[in-house]
Amino acid sequence: MKIATLGLLAIIGASFAGTATAGVNANGYLLLHTDDSVIYTEDDEDSYCNLLEVDCPFDPECDDDHMGCSSAAMSLTPTSGLGPDETLVWVVAAFWPDACPRVTAVQFGLSWPVEAAASPIIKTGSCAPFELPTGNWPNELLEGTAVSWAPNAITRTAFPVYWFTAYSYYGPMEVALADFPTGTTGAAFADDSVPAVLDQIPDANMGSVGLNGATGSNPYMVPVPVNEKSWGEVKAIFGR
């Protein structure tokens, strides 16, 4: 957990607290997912944020079984098979099944090879009601955006944060999630406490998407226990 950067500080309009303990959104993931069967159209934009709504419902009391949601998150597809064509990509927040997230805002960036002639990003859309991008987002490297549902909190262990379309005409390209460019916190989740707590997303927990022959990465991998009683043992093995 870190002191807030300007991105989420501005978008929520609150002061963030710095404490020695992690917040409820600690150790979260930010993933990229694509589906070759879904071709982008402007008419369908309103439906893109419905991803995972059945597998990963709201759970404000934190008393549901989230293993089905975790399985869905592990099954997200990070590699496109559409060649050089425009590809729809989702940015998905995900947490372990024993987590109790309360996400009011997210900030992140995107990266791609510096030798690319131009940004591979074509269109973008937020799944939150408010967005505050940096000045040249998403047309340049070292840019980013922050999105917010505040004062409401998202209490799902996996849910879409954002979507964009991208292409790579000249060959394989990997587009990866990256740190927010200003401040020292990087990519992060904010919660609904007052003052809000900002939890940094570890670099190892951020995914990528592969375009036109490149292979993407989905780092979300939860060991599935064989029965309910084994979950604590599984967490201990993996250092949770």
Automatic annotation (TrEMBL):
Signal peptide: 1-22
UniProt keyword Signal, yes or no: yes
Keywords in alphabetical order: Signal
Identification of the protein by name: Uncharacterized protein
The organism of origin for this protein: Eiseniibacteriota bacterium
